[in-house]
Amino acid sequence: QVQLVESGGGWVQPGGSLTLNCGTSGPTFDGYAVGWFRQAPGKEREVISIISAVGLTADYVPSVSGRFIIYKDSANKMVSLEMNRLKPEDTGVYFCGATFAGMNDHIPEVASFNIWGQGTQVTVSS
Fold first, then answer.
1. Residue 27 phi/psi, 5° resolution?
2. How far is CA 104 from CA 66, 89, 92, in A?
3. What pLDDT is attached to residue 1?
4. 11-15: long-range contacts (C-beta < 8 A, 24 or more apart)?
5. Which residues contact 109 (CB under 8 A, 6 or more apart)?
6. Measured between alpha carbons, how far is 88 from 96 in angstroms, rounded to an integer?
7. Mean confidence (pLDDT) of the chain
8. Spatial distance between the Cα atoms of 53 and 44, rounded to a whole number of angstroms
9. Is-contact 14 86, C-beta < 8 A?
10. SS3 per residue for the chain
11. What is the pLDDT of residues 98-115, one digit of tens each?
């Protein structure tokens, strides 16, 4: 089973931007749908965005829609989350998650995600 490693977290002022990256220990993310999740202090982990294995389809929760963009690199070895116009309520630990779904454009159920990175802290404050 592959391992995931997140990077790119840190502190940013409200209105600023950060880009998170998720790399795989495997050769590529071929066949894997990948998502970004976050856990705010005292709250359950929640899904933010998921991109399909082939990368043509992505979805976003309304709270980040229009501000965040999920994408894969050209080699399909890294999945990034570009976060713009960040708000204090975006603060939390961000996790990369993945599930093997085969090379298709389907967005799997959140419950199927079974591979997780260690998380990276994002703090949005002035």
1. -60, -40
2. 25, 33, 31
3. 76
4. 11/123, 11/124, 11/125, 12/86, 12/122, 12/123, 12/124, 13/124, 13/125, 13/126, 14/86, 14/87, 14/88, 14/124, 14/125, 14/126, 15/85, 15/86
5. none
6. 20
7. 97
8. 25
9. yes
10. CCCEEEECCEEECCCCCEEEEEEECCCCCCCEEEEEEEECCCCCCEEEEEECCCCCCEEECCCCCCCEEEEECCCCCEEEEEECCCCHHHCEEEEEEEEECCCCCCCCCHHHCCEECCCEEEEECC
11. 999 999 999 999 999 999
123 — pLDDT class (breaks 50, 70, 90) = very high
Residue where the block lists tokens 């002022």: 13
Record the tokens describing residue 100, joined without a space: 């093997």
| pLDDT the model gives residue 105 | 96
Asked if 18 and 9 count as a contact pair (C-beta separation under 8 A), the reply is yes
Q: What is the dihedral of CA 51, 123, 10, 1, to 10 degrees?
A: -40
pLDDT value of residue 53: 96
- Of the pLDDT bands very low, low, confident and very high (cuts 50, 70, 90), residue 34 is very high
